[in-house]
């Protein structure tokens, strides 16, 4: 589960119903990540007020972070989906749709207005 204000990612084993917690190292509080999606061997957490996208390898439960180039705060994105093998981050209060290639971890930001999504 996505650790919005929590310090840990909660993982539920649907067979054993066992809970496992993975510490993010980012502490409690703040709306850090909102939304999670998986593609292949990568689980991605959408940064809302966090400055970084959080990535988890589901096998090892290792967490890594990819900087967005935007500072903390601001309710920037809220939700992530996989489309055509790319992670697409939906804007909340931000003006950009963010796209990440899971193999290279390269990000690009597309301005909503330039895409004709805002009047």
Task: Jot down its keywords.
119 residues, Neuraminidase, four-stranded antiparallel sheet, 10 strands, mainly beta
> Globular, elongated, flat, extended or rod-shaped: what is the shape?
globular
- CATH topological fold name: Neuraminidase
CATH architecture: 6 Propeller
**Helix/strand-derived class?**
mainly beta
SSE pattern? EEEEEEEEEE
Oligomer: single chain
Output the radius of gyration.
14 Å
Runs in which pLDDT lies below 50 for 5 or more consecutive residues are none
Counting H and I runs of at least 4 residues, what is the number of helices?
Answer: 0
**How many strand segments?**
10
For the record, the CATH class is Mainly Beta
Q: What do we call the CATH homologous superfamily?
A: TolB, C-terminal domain
Read across the widest sheet, the strand sequence of neighbours is 3-4-5-6
Instruction: Compute the number of structural domains.
Output: 1
Strand content: over 45%
Tell me about the largest β-sheet.
4 strands, antiparallel
> What is the overall pLDDT average?
91
The percent of residues in helical segments reads under 10%
Distance between the termini: 35 Å
Task: Present the secondary structure layout.
Elements lengths: L7 E5 L6 E5 L9 E7 L2 E6 L4 E5 L6 E5 L9 E7 L2 E6 L4 E5 L6 E5 L8
Antiparallel strand pairs: 1-2, 3-4, 4-5, 5-6, 7-8, 8-9, 9-10
Protein name: SMP-30/Gluconolactonase/LRE-like region domain-containing protein
Organism: Alexandrium andersonii
